[in-house]
Amino acid sequence: MSKVLYYQPDELTDFATAVFETSGMPLASAKVIAGDLVRANLRGVESHGVSRIPMYMSRLRAGLVNPQPDIKIREVAGAVSHVDGDNAMGFLPAHAAMDEAIRQAEKSGIGLVGVHRSTHFGMGALYALQAADAGYISMIFTNSSPAIAMWGGRSSFLGASPIAAGVPGGKHPPYIMDMAMTVIARGKIRLAAIRGEAIPEGLALDVDGNPTTDAQKAFEGVCLPFGGVKGSVLATLMDIMAGVLTGANFAGDVKSLYFDHSEPQNVGHLFFAIRPDLFMSLADYEARMDLYYQRIKETPVATGFEEVLMPGQPEARREAERRLSGIPISGNIVAELTEEAAKEGIQFPQGYAVPITNNS
User: Fold this and answer.
1) DSSP character string of 130-192
2) How much is the pTM?
3) Which of 103, 165, 167, 163 minimizes the C-alpha distance to 132?
4) pLDDT tens, 287-318?
5) 230-269 b/e with 16+ CB inside 10 Å = b?
6) Burial of 62 (0-12, 13-18, 19+ CB in 10 A)
7) What is the pLDDT at residue 359?
8) Share of the chain above pLDDT 90, in %
């Protein structure tokens, strides 16, 4: 593995903001996207962090992403709204949609918002955290460009199509779930390809349908669904709910983020927000969630484990650590970001070789 350097979150956020501003993007929008990418790195989701900046910028330069979108929200039913993303960076209509879902849930108990004409929206957990911070339960669906085959098929048809969800707790951390329908997120295979690393067997096939441990061949080929037919079925649901239902592209028509520069992606998303006090008082709900958390922590530990964790807890701990020690970035990614910075006349931060410790 190439040399790793560490960076403070603020310096990476400032760098990413400056890069996106060069595309003509307003400062406020650039800050949101930069912050979201750095948040992914903080939580250990490197595949959805600042390593994506060069790819995002190539699409902005090609005119496939609108740096100054006119995002429109219209209410279509009592607790339901529809968002036109105007080919924006997907982070922007996605945050707007979750805000709208929360607004609908505040008055109706539940809010549902569909999004079309969007693009890749980064780490799904961003929007589960957004809702949990506001005190709402959430579910987030998205479709994506073809990455896995239908069960029984041999060519890419379904996207990795992640699902995310969040449930606020009481005095304990929220439940945060974010997972792709593939055995491993395609972005992680891409990151391994950039680093020149092999991947384990059983994750992907090459373009000829053969099993491979070559990350680049896997990235260009077909990802395997987790759980076999079950992952394929769930990916189909994501495509129907986020694509067919919202008016976005679907059934293999979402344009590849990496390989297709012919036209905008037209990704679809679907956001649910639910008030947690619908069936009882908020105090009772929080007490029940605290009891749930307590019982999880009291579960007997299996051999090889030190602790049973609430979903989202490992990422939250990693984020707290990295806010102090810095964010590790491999040399291959540093080289790509440095090259991207040079294109825009921007200085990439120098970084430091050893993480900051609590004793420093």
Assistant:
1) HHHHTT-EEEEEE--SEEEPPTT-SS--EE---EEEEE--SSSPPEEEEE-SBSS-HHHHHHH
2) 0.93
3) 167
4) 999 999 999 999 999 999 999 999 999 999 99
5) ebbebbbebbbbbbebbebbbeeebbebbeeeeebbbbbb
6) exposed
7) 52
8) 81
